[in-house]
Amino acid sequence: MAHRIGISGITGRMGQLLAEEVPAVGAALSGGVGRAGSGKPAPDGVTLWPDLAALAEASDVVIDFTHASTAQATAAAMAKAGKPWVLGSSGLSADDEAAVEAAARSIPVVYASNFSAGVNLVLALCERMGAALPAETYDAEIMEMHHRQKVDAPSGTAVGMGRAVAKGRGRKLEDVMESGRHGHTGPRKTGAIGFAALRGGQVVGEHTLIFASGTEHIALTHRAFDRRAFASGAVRAALWVAGKPPGLYSMMEVLGMA
Question: Which is the catalytic residue, given 146, 172, 182, 244?
Fold first, then answer.
C-alpha cells in the first residue's frame, strides 16, 4: 500500500509543489490543510481537511512547510496524533526548536533548514572546512539572498551553514554569530561567524560561505533556481521517516550521510 502523505500548508507556494511531487514518486496524497492567510484553494481534486488533527489521522506522514509561528502548536498536535512529521519551516526560535525536540521524544521528526540534496552536501563541506581552517587566521562570513517576500533573516540555510562551521570548530553558533552589522562596530572579532542577508526580486535562494585569511579567500556557493529541489527532498524525507522510531532526524541521515 502506498504511503499516505499529508501536507500542512498545501495552499502555499511550497505546498502546491509538494502536492505535485507526492504522486510523482508513487505515494498517495492524503490531502492537506491550508496555509493561514494564503486565501488560496487547495489544488484540484485534493481534500482540504479542517485542521491538523484530521489531516494527521488520514496520513501516514505529514510534511509541514508553513510558518515558524505555528511550530509549537504543530509539534504538540503531531505528538498527540503519533504520526511522523517532516518540518521545513525556517526562522524557528529556541523555544520553537525545544518544542520540536520534545515532540521527537514520542514521534519521528525530520527537521532540516533545507531539504535540497545539494545544500546538504554543502553543509557537510562547511563543517569540514570549519575544522580545517583555523578561526584565528580564517574569518568566516556567510552571505545569502532571497526573494523580497521572505520574512526571516538570516535564512534557515544560512544559519545551518553557520552551525556547521561552528561545529567544525568545536563551538556553538550562538556564541560566535555576528549578524546585521551597522554603525561603528569596531574591529572584527577573531573567531566570529558573520552573516549578511540580501532581499530582492524573486531569487529562490543563494548562499555563499567565504573563508578569508591574509593570504587567500575560499568561497563555497549554492544557488537554487527552482523550489522543486526542496519539495522533492522533503517527499524523499517523508518516505524515509515512515516506520522509524521516535527521534529527531536530519536530512543528512535521510541522504545516508550521517
Answer: 146
Using the structure block, give the residue that is written with the C-alpha cell 524515509: 240
For the question of residue 244 being annotated catalytic, the response is no
Catalytic-role residue among 40, 150, 167, 244:
150
- Looking at the structure, tell me whether residues 183 and 247 fall in a common domain: no
Query: Are 176 and 201 contained in the same domain?
Result: yes
Q: The domain that contains 8 carries what CATH number?
A: 3.40.50.720
Distance, CA of 4 to CA of 251 (rounded, Å): 20
Q: How confident is the model at residue 38 (pLDDT cuts 50, 70, 90)?
A: low
DSSP for 19-70, please give it: HHHHHHTT-EEEEEEPPTT---PPPTT--B-SSHHHHHHT-SEEEE-S-GGG
Assess whether pLDDT exceeds 80 at residue 176.
yes
Give CA–CA dist 25/39, Å, rounded. 28
pTM exceeds cut of 0.70: yes
What's the structural domain count of the chain?
2
| Calpha distance 75→176 (Å, rounded) | 29
In whole angstroms, give the CA distance from residue 180 to residue 222: 21
Q: Give the pLDDT mean for 236-255.
A: 96
Question: Which residues have a Cβ under 8 Å from the Cβ of 73 and sit 6 or more positions away?
Answer: none
CATH number of the CATH domain containing 179 = 3.30.360.10
Note the pLDDT of residue 103. 98
